[in-house]
Amino acid sequence: MENIYKPLIENIKEVVNLSDKETSLIIDAFHPKVLAKKEILLFKGDISNHMRFISEGCLRSYYINEEGQEYIVQFGIQDWWVNDLYSYLTNTPAQYFIQALQPTTVLQIYRDKLEELFIQAPIMERFFRIKMQNAYVANQDRTLKSMSETAESRYRNFIKNYRAIEQVVPQYMVASYLGITPEHLSTIRKNLHK
Amino acid sequence: MENIYKPLIENIKEVVNLSDKETSLIIDAFHPKVLAKKEILLFKGDISNHMRFISEGCLRSYYINEEGQEYIVQFGIQDWWVNDLYSYLTNTPAQYFIQALQPTTVLQIYRDKLEELFIQAPIMERFFRIKMQNAYVANQDRTLKSMSETAESRYRNFIKNYRAIEQVVPQYMVASYLGITPEHLSTIRKNLHK
DNA sequence: CGTCTATTTGAATGTACTCAAAAGCGGTGG
DNA sequence: CCACCGCTTTTGAGTACATTCAAATAGACG
């Protein structure tokens, strides 16, 4: 197995069992794409035609509203799946950008190829269902907390749960992810240090 | 087909094709449960052992934090799937309550039975994957908007998208769903009427 | 070293909250 | 049929949390 596929296969095997046959089908179906820092993987308006797994590096997906303000939807580091799912699933123009924050390698599978894979290796249908469920739960939790907790509390949770991310992304992006201004995050940090 | 199953079968057929065989397998697997107004379907701390489809009526799922404050996670009316997914998926105690806001009929399938159904009718695996994906996207959108939009804008969207719900649930619950106080929602409404 | 970008600081403002009280509304019993 | 009770919604005053804007400081990188 090529080394670059190791995180992907391990990520899938955490959820479902894979035969050697299925493993090699998967490896054949996913293709690597290397991104430079700041390179944009998906533009708003393009149709997202791939499911994407981060083999190495760091990405963000973000949204720009009518007034030009950026909102970070999701960060992703090694072992995360990142996509504009709505675009992927409905074949419509993406709402979000996806950009590399570090030199990054993703493994991508084209939509039609994935549908094929679901037939050849039906266990993958199960894998993606479970992944979706977990993502959904995590996101619901985020919604709840974004409404019920103060910014300080959300920041505390962020550094507790995503230390690896906090260490590689600039602070103003963390602020954007938390839904607050960089200035406010700065004062929160000042208060925490006391 | 018993009439009560009609919304369920139609809901599934919107997403995947069903043979007569599969249809009858589904009907055999789901069981109705009738709830009185205010009756609680799932208690925090219990394990959610069923997937649930609302055949008729209205439910809410809500969360109570350490300080005793209630936060509404989701409303559901006819044709909606409602659950504490984390509990269901991981066999752990529920974080949320689920309660009937109206006399309600749900169709439930027990976890083991659903796993069986996935084997007998694999198309259902696909159905739930797609449902999860859509739910995920809707929820991500909600997170984004709860952070990027003012309460007034969120309320406007709520009445635009969920008029049917707004008309049957008390206003203070809408406030809870939007993450604001009932008093604040009241003043927002006053301003809108001008 | 200089330039560009990110972070911090502070003042003024705005959005939403808390608390308290009044008004509205629906159902029930006399 | 009306009066009362309990619950929901409205109103208002004072407060807290977070934002905007402006400017100063700190860091990264060529």
What sequence of helices (H) and strands (E) makes up the elements of chain A? Answer: HHEEEEEHEEHHHHHH
Question: What oligomerization state is this entry in?
Answer: homodimer
Mean pLDDT value of chain A? 92
Strand tally of chain A:
7
Class based on secondary structure composition and strand pairing of chain A: alpha+beta
The largest interface is: A-B, 31 and 31 residues
Biggest sheet character of chain A? 4 strands, antiparallel
Amino-to-carboxy terminus distance of chain A: 50 Å
Strand order of the largest sheet of chain A: 2-6-4-5
Indicate the radius of gyration of chain A in whole angstroms. 18 Å
Beta-strand content of chain A: 15-25%
> Number of DSSP helices of chain A?
9
Which spans of chain A of ≥5 residues are poorly predicted at pLDDT below 50?
none
Helix content of chain A: 40-55%
Q: Report the principal-axis shape of chain A.
A: globular
Summarize the structure.
2 copies of one chain form a homodimer. Helix content of chain A is 48%, strand content 21%.
Give an account of the 3D structure:
The structure is a homodimer of 194-residue chains. Chain A has 194 residues and is of the alpha+beta class. Helix content of chain A is 48%, strand content 21%. Chain A is built from 9 helices and 7 strands. Chain A has helices spanning 6-13, 20-29, 85-90, 111-120, 123-148, 151-161, 163-166, 171-178, 182-192; strands at residues 31-35, 40-42, 50-56, 58-64, 70-77, 97-100, 104-110. In chain A, the strands form 2 sheets. In chain A, strands 2-6-4-5 form a 4-stranded antiparallel β-sheet. In chain A, strands 1-7-3 form a 3-stranded antiparallel β-sheet. The longest helix of chain A is centred in the last third of the chain and has 26 residues, at 123-148. The N and C termini of chain A lie far apart (50 Å). The mean pLDDT of chain A is 92. The A-B interface holds A 63, 65, 69, 71, 73, 85-86, 89, 118, 122, 125-126, 128-130, 132-137, 139-140, 142-144, 146-148, 178-179 and B 63, 65, 69, 71, 73, 85-86, 89, 118, 122, 125-126, 128-130, 132-137, 139-140, 142-144, 146-148, 178-179. The structure holds a DNA duplex (30 and 30 nucleotides).
